[in-house]
Amino acid sequence: MEGSVVTQDASKKSSEETSRAPSISILHFNDIYNVTEQPKEPKAGAARFATAMKSFADRDPLVLFCGDALSPSVMSTFTKGEQMVTVMNRLGIHCACYGNHEFDFGLERLEDVNAATNFPWLLSNMVDDETQKPLGDAKEYHIIEWKGWKIGLMGLGEAQWLETMATINPEEVSYYDYVEKANQLCPILREKGCNYIIAMTHLRRPNDIRLMENAPDVDLFLGGHDHDYEIIKVNDKVTLKSGADFIEFSMVTLTLEDSKVKVDIERVEVDSKFEPDPGMVEALSHYEEVLNANMEVDLGCCTVEMDGRETSVRTQETNLGNFITDVMMAATNSDIAVLNSGTIRGDRIHQKGDFKVKDLMTILPMQDPLVVIEITGQKLVEALENSVSKYDEESGRFLQVAGVEFVFNPDAPLGSRVPADLVMVADKYVNLEEKYRLVTKDYLRKGKDGFTMFPDCTILVDEEQCPQLNCCVQNHFEAIKTCQGKGKKKTSHRQNLVLVSRRHTMLQAETLDPVEPERKKSAAQHWRTLRILRQTLSVIKINKEHVEELEQQACKLAPVVEGRIEKVTDEMIGKLRMQKKLSNSAVIAEAENNVNNNEKVPMVPKLPNRFFQTVADRMRILDVLVEMGAEVTEHREPGSH
Question: Looking at residue 253, which CATH number applies to its domain?
Fold first, then answer.
């Protein structure tokens, strides 16, 4: 056990203060995920943790938990954190604050957990605009009278949560800065007679420090979110982070000394000297049966077969890969999603019909944390090059993608298989210097599978704040139920079914204003160009569905191959460059001999490049143009492969 002592001013006393015990104890812990013990020391695990806590029963501690219990873990993937309700109730928690991972399974599930636990949950600075109450049916503050001490508690989260909680609609949440909220609540708690105020936080270290520096009336800060054990001191204040995952906890002793409160902290490591608690072991054994039963739970119904064969996902675009990466992109509101095909297991065609939890675990059996990074167009092209660098070996580094379209020639030399000038992000050809928001597995972000361009990229949302991959997919099915009115309650808080930027792209084609063509003196053949473009437009079908219709389409669970990844030859690359040149530089002009000076050339809609869907579409369009006599020459971008 390790100790630390801080002495604080205790001169703030309320008029209602009664005789306080000279000292009280607080047991603090945070961020618990895996209830099973580890193979090596410290053994940890919920059962040994319970025994370790009981060893301090003679101190009768106030037990405070600072967030993150429901997810992520293998067991929680099946149970949606049900086992944690049992664990937390048996640990005798007196009060807890929410962590960001409490929201991983949606607001409805969290409110069920809140009702099932026998202690209050706090979230002081986020309000659900639908209910005008703290998000997740939490309390804004809580007051506990403990051995003559009247302790005021608040629970504080950070704005970054709202950027990463896939199941929450941030537009329906009012967020209040944690410093401002703390300073607002302190006088309220003092007025209610509190003689000691504790801020229970789930913030990153820099935010905890900012809070300590700017909330002078808070007496003690108990934290979470960070997983390393740490005691942070600023002046005479302390923030305590008590590790993670049942490995350790803290015993805090508050002792009155004249006008001061001495804060003594003991670090307790849960190793094999603590035997597993028999009651906890028995309570958790039930969840092995729960796991088996949950494997048969229906998540939804797929209306098409999904190709998960290894020879497919490791060599080409598949509808299963598109489904998973679309979910990743929508869940994290990213521009691009990339997933190494080695992640996708099962090696089979998944039949249409009921899609069960066991099907999901067959496809995505591993706990894969996601991460969002900022990547330049140049590094994106490098990543795509790496994706096809071992194409002949059917390597697991081959990427399934969303938000990006590219072609590759497997016969070209390494490093020049992906023409950079033909890579598209959304409806535009990639800008090598522009920065994009990309979601991928943290495994790839660390440079694994040859993706050495990722580690240097700025992390926008780290793996701690992103949901697990299979959790994203489960939430997608739950979002479909909510969208279809099959959830327990009507709410706008759910994971996105369609990426916001994709909604906008699809709707742009419906509302496009005609583009006034450039005019320049020209010969009559320019009318032929106009006819060519009109016939070209007849080849392209513009999606005019509204956002609601797009989401209903997503609800059908019928992913398709869209032409995101195409294997091509050098000849096809040349034709694609011709098509790009035509789509970028077509000019509609007045014919000198056929148009009066006052006659205006008909207006032609300008279409996003996205609507030239697949390589086959582009080849067909180009053939129409060539057949009609359009003069085209191969166009190569400077510096392109």
Answer: 3.60.21.10
Cα distances (Å, whole numbers) of residue 119 to 32, 33, 55, 206 = 17, 19, 22, 29
| pLDDT beyond 90 at 627 | no
User: Average pLDDT, stretch 429-438?
Assistant: 96
For 67: left if phi > 0, alpha if psi spans -120 to 50, otherwise beta; the answer is: left
Residue 53: Cβ within 10 Å count: 22
What does 462-474 look like in DSSP terms, one character per residue? -TTTSPBHHHHHH
4-57 per-position pLDDT tens digit: 444 455 544 444 445 889 999 999 999 999 898 988 899 999 999 999 999 999
Residue 12, token pair as written in the block: 């703030």
Contact between 255 and 5 under an 8 Å Cβ cutoff? The reply is: no
Pairing of strands 399-402, 336-340: antiparallel
Q: How far is Cα 161 from Cα 135, in angstroms, rounded to an integer?
A: 12
Question: How far is CA 22 from each of CA 18, 153, 257, 347, rounded to the nearest angstrom?
Answer: 12, 20, 8, 65
Q: How far apart are CA 226 and CA 411, in angstroms?
A: 47
Structure tokens at 37: 């013990």
By mean pLDDT, which of 144-153, 280-289, 591-600 is the weakest? Answer: 591-600
CB-based burial of residue 363 (10 Å sphere; 0-12 exposed, 13-18 middle, 19+ buried)?
Answer: buried
Segment 474-489 mean pLDDT: 75
pLDDT at 548 over 70: no
Secondary structure E strands in 14-98: 23-29, 62-65, 95-97
Q: Cα(492)–Cα(472) distance, rounded to whole angstroms?
A: 17
The strands making up 2-9's β-sheet, listed across from edge to edge, are: 2-9, 260-269, 248-257, 23-29, 62-65, 95-97, 121-122
Q: In the listed set 491, 506, 521, which residue is the last one of a domain according to the structure?
A: 506
Q: Which of 410, 396, 238 is nearest to 313 (CA)?
A: 396
CA end-to-end distance (rounded Å), the chain = 61
Helices marked H in 408-539: 442-445, 469-483, 500-511, 525-539
Domain assignment of residue 227, yes or no: yes
Final residue in a domain of this structure, among 243, 277, 292: 292
Please list, in sequence order, all residues whose beta carbon lies within 8 angstroms of the beta carbon of residue 300, skipping any fewer than 6 positions away. 354, 355, 477, 480, 481, 557
- Helix, strand, coil abundance in the chain, percent, nearest 5: 35, 25, 40
The pLDDT, as a whole number, for residue 612 is 45
The 3 state secondary structure assigned to 206-245 is HHHHHHHHHCCCCCEEECCCCCCCEEEEECCEEEEECCCC
Q: At a CB cut-off of 8 Å and minimum separation 6, what does 213 contact?
A: 234
Q: How open is the CA angle 225-229-232, to the nearest 5 degrees?
A: 85
Answer yes or no: do 242 and 300 share one domain. Answer: no
Phi, psi angles (nearest 5°) of residue 317: -65, 140
Domain check: are 286 and 300 in the same one? no
Domain enclosing residue 433, as ranges: 296-506
According to the model, what pLDDT value does residue 73 have? 80
- Which residues have CB under 8 Å from 66's CB, separation 6+? 28, 29, 30, 31, 96, 97, 99, 200, 201, 202, 222, 223, 224, 242
What six digits make up the tokens of 529? 């160009």
pLDDT tens sequence across 309-358: 888 999 999 999 999 999 999 999 999 999 999 899 888 889 899 999 88
CA distance 348 to 495: 28
Tell me the C-alpha distance between 121 and 118, whole Å. 10
The residues pairing with 230 across neighbouring beta strands, listed in sequence order, are 241
Reported pTM = 0.62
